[in-house]
Design brief:
The strands form 2 sheets. The protein has a 4-stranded parallel beta sheet with strand order 1-5-6-7, sandwiched between helices. The chain has a 3-stranded parallel beta sheet with strand order 2-3-4. The protein has 153 residues and is an alpha/beta fold. Helix 1 runs parallel beside helix 2 (39-49) and helix 3 (82-89) packs across helix 4 (100-112). The protein contains 5 helices and 7 strands, in the order E-H-E-H-E-E-H-E-H-E-E-H.
């Protein structure tokens, strides 16, 4: 399960990410994230607190600044291109909060169209008529986010 979100996040995004991580670990999901601070750190901490496995796909070519809650650290050295690796690695993508990097992850996930994309908080995308962009599943809570992935009954 890929979880994306900003490195500089709100307290609400951090709480949501912590809970999403915990809930995913309780369901036996491997959490894939960017591996640094903010939402990435919170989802990793939540998953690890429940005994889960967390894979960090790092933008840097080394492990410097990697979150200590990661189970597996993958330094890529590809910079922001790692966003593509993150969203392609999960059976679903949960996006928590909003930032330019997070928006790129959401766009890549939607463009691939391979996995469900669930958004919890953050920026809302509108089309030319001002209507919500179709296809993004909007969650109201961490529990709802997992439900909207369609991976658990």
């Amino acid at each position: 399960m890929s979880v994306c979100g900003p490195r500089d996040c709100t307290a609400e995004d951090e709480r949501n990410a912590l809970e999403v991580g915990r809930l995913l670990a309780e369901r036996g999901a491997v959490v894939i994230c960017g591996g640094y601070t903010g939402v990435m750190a919170a989802v990793a901490a939540g998953a690890r607190s429940a005994g889960g496995t967390v894979v960090g796909i790092l933008s840097r070519p080394d492990r410097e600044h990697a979150n200590p809650d990661l189970s597996i650290v993958i330094p890529t050295g590809v910079g922001e291109a790692r966003n593509n690796i993150i969203v392609n690695s999960g059976d679903a993508v949960i996006v928590i909060g909003g930032s330019w990097g997070t928006l790129s992850e959401l766009a890549l996930a939607m463009r691939h169209g391979r996995a469900p994309v669930v958004q919890l908080g953050g920026w809302r995308l509108l089309d030319q008529q001002g209507d919500p962009v179709p296809g993004i599943r909007h969650a109201t809570s961490p529990e709802h986010a997992l439900e909207l992935t369609g991976l658990w009954s």
